[in-house]
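Let's study a protein:

===
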Amino acid sequence: MADHNDPNSVNSIFSDIDVSAADVYDMFGYPSDAGDEEKVVLALTFASVPEAGVFDPDMLYRLLVNPHARSVRPTGEEWSLGALTRYFDAVKDRYLGQNAAAEIRVTVDAAGTATVKFRDFPGGTFTTQVPTDEVTTIRTPSGQEITAYLGGRDDAFFNDLPGFFRSINYAPQFFHVPHARKDLRELPIPKTLLELEGNTLFNYNPEIPDHGRGVKLDLPPGPYTWEGDSFAKDADGNYRFVYSGKDAQAGRNVNAIILEVPLSFLTSRPEQERIVNVWGESWVRKASSKIETIPDDPLWTENPVALLRRRGLDDELQRYKLVDTVGQPFADAGLSEREDNRQLGANNFWLATVFVRRLAHLGWGFGPSVTALGLASAFDHDNAPVSVHRTYASAATAFPRGRKVIFQQMRMPDDSWNKHKLDIPLRRPFEIFIPNVCAIDMDTTGTWPFGRRLEDQVATRFLSLFLDMGAPLGDTGYSVETLNQQSLWDGAPISPKTPPNPIANDTPFLPQFPYLAEPW
């Protein structure tokens, strides 16, 4: 998933947690294809509670925007843990405390009228009101026009969510597990893309075909470990894919804040500041007594940036508490493990060592799976013949294993993303996930990881992190789209022969604003 069911306090996968309007889902951002003026499309989606097109009046949503020029990163000769740390130190001042970010703040009253506040933009600071479920035009003090839609839409995220949870042996997707049972979330069974021989808790069971797809069982007695030594194979000698390629979000709705904004409103230097960083947040009114597992006044010393964040709250935000953030797909839901106190948005620098350890943990599961399929893995798993469950207490110990995963260039399938044919370096995982923002490169099409377009299959592209982008493969080599290619799976010893996730949304996107399809 991108950010659905995150953080844990609003994770409705748990048997005792309801779906919440505070659960932000996806942050989309890319250069607009419409008109001659440079514009940016921004779309924040979240749970449609109480229903599609009807917003929870106890919620406040924020879109924080920080344009800047391209950063200078470490040279290729110094891909070390020290270089990684120095890079984060060099760029974190741009975000720390969020003082440098302008913001769009949205609340909706019980009558369905939205109050939209634009704060600290070069194009002006102002407040306006707009109706929900309508396309409207907002005129700024500087005379520019912003196209807006706040309302219900079809969920634009298309993925095999149960397949992802099967790959990490995530019990709450398949069994009745309450929020308090932290020990029964990701069970100590190796992560894997291929079913493990004898993993009866999570392997596909044809007698219960919908297990994990709406059907949950009582968790049987433990132990909740795996003692096997091989991947499972069928009678034809094929591996069994943990993914089905089916869209678990088909037929589901979201509520959304969708804006098409002139670049010149966001920055006074649009010719120089070509990267538009954006991230979203959800806040819930303290007086509503909702989401009580997140305290109204949390322990602000539990991470290095929280005290600065608290000092920066204005009178309005003091009446709310932060619940969820979303920027880069999987930075929160996958790498931050959905922890409540890791909802930091662009200020996630203190999680760098956490991510190094987490990527190594995932690598021991996904790396051997990739190798078993005859593909080149970027993770150093010592040629393990099967996935391994291994955790790390130290980033220094984990780093050598995942060094290539962290630093390798994420190759694109062709050069169509670079629409002006400029000298734009390929992005690397360390700069994709920290800071946790959707970094929109205005000189590209904005396809991931140069932004995020609606049609991007980011779930499968995320898995490509574990492919060795420098290894040979056919005529073109590896890229972020390799695992999306049906021809690869047609020739692989695997069943079913499908890409991990669907290659298109359940409903086609619209060619015109608001771009997301009508709600079901």
Observations:
- The first strand starts at residue 24 and ends at 31.
